[in-house]
Specification:
The complex is a heterodimer of chains A (about 300) and B (about 260).
Chain A: E1 3-6, E2 9-12, E3 15-29, H1 33-43, H2 50-53, E4 56-63, E5 74-81, H3 84-99, E6 106-109, E7 116-119, H4 121-124, E8 133-137, E9 140-146, E10 151-155, E11 157-173, H5 176-190, E12 195-196, E13 208-210, E14 220-222, E15 245-253, H6 256-272, E16 277-279, E17 290-293
Parallel strand pairs in A: 2-16, 6-10
Antiparallel strand pairs in A: 1-2, 3-5, 3-6, 3-11, 3-17, 4-5, 7-11, 8-9, 9-10, 11-15, 11-16, 12-15, 13-14
Helix pairs in contact in A: 1-3, 5-6
Chain B: E1 2-7, E2 15-16, H1 22-25, H2 30-34, E3 37-40, E4 43-46, H3 47-50, E5 51-55, E6 60-64, E7 70-71, E8 78-85, E9 98-103, E10 123-129, E11 143-148, E12 164-167, E13 183-186, E14 197-202, H4 205-216, H5 223-227, E15 230-235, E16 243-248, H6 251-255
Parallel strand pairs in B: 1-6, 2-7, 6-8, 8-9, 9-10, 10-11, 11-12, 12-13, 13-16
Antiparallel strand pairs in B: 1-5, 2-3, 3-4, 14-15, 15-16
The chains are: A alpha+beta (about 300), B alpha/beta (about 260).
Chain lengths: ~300, ~260
């Protein structure tokens, strides 16, 4: 496959294919950075792929006290689902189980300018069993839910925006350690405002294909074309010569531009950290509305 | 667009300023506003007889001068903003429904309160007073926020339905009588009515948000109030016991 070279890294002439998804941004604050992080980690657990987890979620970034509504340290979390209803259900479940339960936290809408919203505190308030109370502060309603610690404060609703999910880079190198180091560097460079990397550490080693060769019921199965151990076992391998391991970074973003720029940052970071090969996964361009050609990422960020 | 009224002469009696609210003055020029008639005791005076008027009516109205003889400033307003540079009389923000009323001075009695015979007072919006407020601030209040930098007089939150009255300098005696679901907040130690019972000391997250909001609106809120602990007293137990008085738990002060 033709393409171009960045340093010692071969970049394929291909593209990542992505889809529109709905997302919410939830701001979690707490008395300390560490409690905010605990809540955010809990809320974004088991949220790697919408296929198996009903949503994709990740920590977007840490927020300083000056950036949060209540002046305490916080974490912004992005949660993606296929539609607004799905976002509403998943946010409600996860804030109820993972944020409300976490000491000292409060929960705010991180997408206040969104036209569409889904209820959060408006539903979660019933946990208060009639003892809940609301306050309208600066035109926004919040719910005070009495809990064993004191009170949990949660916003009435959260805004829902339209984002892009499924942007990706596939990063390879001759040795597993080198490939992982390059992918780790890429993931670190990609994180930022408007970006969620939902897999563990931002990296997925078990990239999938749609459907399966051996079953009609499986929605997804291993991407055998990208598995180095199957290089000589299958006829349609895509593992380049000299590549011994590949890692995929899946990117969900608040906008097409956010995903494209994250991919640009990741590609160049991977190249600088020892990747010998960078490519991307797609479905032939027939399924996803958004295409991100790697040829457009040649210029460094 | 901003309309500015600067007091030129004190009126011979109390004046009702209820009609001078942003939604009624929108689009009106200075000459038009100067011609409006105001009730002053048993007489009527023109706005222009009492004030120098400049600008055009829009979302913001500025009133300047010693307005202690002017009642009902911002009463029943539902949007926009009124800034008052000076003291005001009674009923400021009475039965207000929305918008922001900021008073850089003292306020008279019945701030944000219900008019006689009405069950509900303020039903929305925000009132900020940098000085003190008179008796029965927030009486009958249903929703909204009244924040006073100094003290409130006696009987704040009388028969309050809901909403919040904050007095950073402390609420006066007999606060919260007949309170159903309202929140009264005192930045200084105060003895609640016997119909209130102590619940606990805690860090109320909603109050923190409200204090940050009133700081944004121009009140000086000490950092200690934001990070400190507050005693919650529940009441009025002659009503629903769903209201509260939050009193700053000033441990440093108590230790002296």
């Amino acid at each position: 496959m033709s393409g171009y070279v960045v340093g010692d890294t071969q970049v394929d002439d291909t593209f990542a294919e992505a889809f529109p998804m709905r997302y919410a941004r939830v701001v979690i604050t707490a008395a300390t950075d560490s409690w905010a992080l605990e809540a955010a980690r809990s809320m974004t657990g088991f949220a790697t792929s919408v296929i198996g987890c009903k949503c994709e979620a990740a920590i977007e970034r840490s927020l300083t006290a000056a950036e949060t509504p209540d002046g305490r340290p916080g974490i912004a979390v992005l949660l993606f689902a296929m539609d607004r209803e799905g976002v509403g259900k998943r946010v409600l479940e996860r804030v109820g189980q993972c944020v409300m339960t976490c000491p000292t936290t409060a929960c705010f809408d991180g997408e206040p300018s969104a036209e569409k919203t889904v209820p959060l505190g408006a539903s979660l308030r019933y946990f208060g069993d009639g003892f809940q109370a609301s306050k309208v502060i600066a035109g926004k309603r919040f719910w005070r839910i009495p809990v064993m610690e004191g009170e949990f404060l949660v916003c009435e609703s959260v805004g829902v925006g339209t984002g892009v999910a499924g942007g990706n880079l596939v990063i390879g190198a001759g040795e597993e350690d080198a490939a992982l180091a390059a992918a780790t560097a890429a993931a670190a460079a990609m994180r930022g405002e408007g970006i969620a990397l939902p897999f563990p550490g931002g990296i997925v080693r078990s990239g999938s294909k749609v459907g399966a060769l051996t079953s009609k019921s499986l929605p997804a199965s291993t991407n055998h074309q990208m598995a180095p151990t199957l290089r000589v076992q299958v006829d349609d391998t895509l593992v380049p010569d000299g590549v011994g391991a590949l890692f995929e970074i899946v990117i969900d973003g608040a906008s097409e531009d956010a995903v494209r720029e994250a991919m640009r940052r990741g590609l160049h970071a991977a190249a600088g950290a020892g990747a010998t090969h960078v490519t991307a996964a797609n479905f032939g361009g027939k399924l996803g509305q958004f295409h991100f050609p790697l040829s457009e990422l040649r210029d460094p960020p | 667009m901003t309309l500015t009224l600067t007091l030129r002469a004190q009126p011979p009696a109390h004046v009702d300023l209820t009609q001078l609210i942003p939604e009624r003055l929108r689009g009106r020029g200075a000459g038009d506003v100067a011609g409006l008639r105001l009730r002053c005791g048993r007489e009527q005076l023109g706005v222009g007889d009492l004030f120098d008027v400049s600008g055009t009516g829009g979302e913001e109205l500025i009133l300047a001068g010693d307005l202690r003889r002017f009642n009902g400033i911002g009463a029943r307003m539902s949007g926009g903003a009124i800034d008052v540079r000076g003291d005001v009389g009674a009923w400021a923000g009475g039965e207000m429904d929305g918008g922001v009323l900021r008073i850089f001075g003292d306020a008279g009695a019945r701030l944000g309160a219900a008019y006689p015979g009405a069950r509900a007072g303020m039903t929305g919006g925000e009132i900020v007073v940098t000085g003190d407020a008179g008796e029965e601030a927030g009486a009958g209040m249903r929703r909204g926020l009244v924040a006073v930098g100094g003290r409130t007089g006696n009987g704040a939150g009388l028969r309050m339905l809901a909403g919040t009255v904050i007095a950073l300098g402390g609420i006066g005696a007999e606060a919260g009588l007949g309170n159903k679901r309202g929140s009264l907040v005192s930045g200084k130690a105060v003895e609640p009515l016997p119909s209130y019972a102590f619940a606990t000391c805690f860090h109320p997250p909603a109050l923190r948000l409200q204090l940050l909001r009133v700081r944004e609106l121009g009140l000086t809120v000490p950092e200690s109030l934001l990070s400190g602990s507050w005693a919650r007293w529940s009441g009025d137990r002659t009503e629903l016991t769903r209201g509260e008085i939050l009193i700053f738990d000033d441990k440093e002060e108590a230790g002296r």
